[in-house]
Amino acid sequence: MEAAAAPPPAPAPAAERDPEHHHGCLAVRTSLPRCALGSASSLAGSSDEASCGSPRWIGRGLSCVCIKRKGAYERICMNLTPVQEERLQRLKHRMKVYFDPSRRDHQEALKALWRATYPDQELQGLISEQWKDMGWQGRDPSTDFRGAGFISLENLLFFAKTFSASFQRLLKKQCGNRATWEYPFAVAGVNITFMIMQMLDLQSTKPRTFVRAIFIQMLSEDEWAFDLLYCVAFVVMDKQWLDKNASYMDFNEVLKSTRTQLERELMLDDVMRIEDMPSYSLLC
């Protein structure tokens, strides 16, 4: 998938856990910090509890991989529960859908975004100068979806409907000392979707990062975890923008620092849901 066009050049309540109904490993989340193994060899000759300390591991003989970080080995389990697998496959399907301006449902979604963004303004057409006010690059917003596909439109629509106050605040650049040359709101949103897709690495067949494994467990508890993470990412990006006194040419650097902060927060031991992320409090 080619990268989204960056500015040149530059929630349903989470379900309760029920370990008795899981058939695989709970990724890396437990009520205690993630397991840290003294060495790779200790994995082979120890029981489930001994190899991971106190955390409860569900099932035995599961296929896991160890990754060394900061001098210690930690586990990522490759086995997914049925719920994780089902929701991951649905999310992967969403990520593969390209925006098709000829599809009626895609047209309706675009119109719904306009209504959620400008409830008091009538849209003149799917191709109109009006779209530039939202931060699209031209009169036809469909050309800006090529990098991240239809899910980027779904993300914007979810943000507009779920956190309308934050959405409008960022759209209208209402807070902080703004740059003369601001980032285009809608195009920034498409880039944020693409950044999260890269960060989570969901298309790979094996869990190569802890961030991915952590997110998959969050997804098993809340099917809207990706969309919620998108909303958090958008407000984090805007805060980074203001903190750095950034301008249009700095967008890619701000997006990079946004990803770093998201990864850091997802790795916190007490973050079990998207709502637990410290930056979730920025949403209103």
From TrEMBL:
<feature type="compositionally biased region" description="Pro residues">
    <location>
        <begin position="1"/>
        <end position="12"/>
    </location>
</feature>
<dbReference type="Pfam" id="PF04727">
    <property type="entry name" value="ELMO_CED12"/>
</dbReference>
<dbReference type="InterPro" id="IPR006816">
    <property type="entry name" value="ELMO_dom"/>
</dbReference>
<dbReference type="InterPro" id="IPR050868">
    <property type="entry name" value="ELMO_domain-containing"/>
</dbReference>
<feature type="region of interest" description="Disordered">
    <location>
        <begin position="1"/>
        <end position="21"/>
    </location>
</feature>
<protein>
    <recommendedName>
        <fullName>ELMO domain-containing protein</fullName>
    </recommendedName>
</protein>
<feature type="domain" description="ELMO">
    <location>
        <begin position="105"/>
        <end position="266"/>
    </location>
</feature>
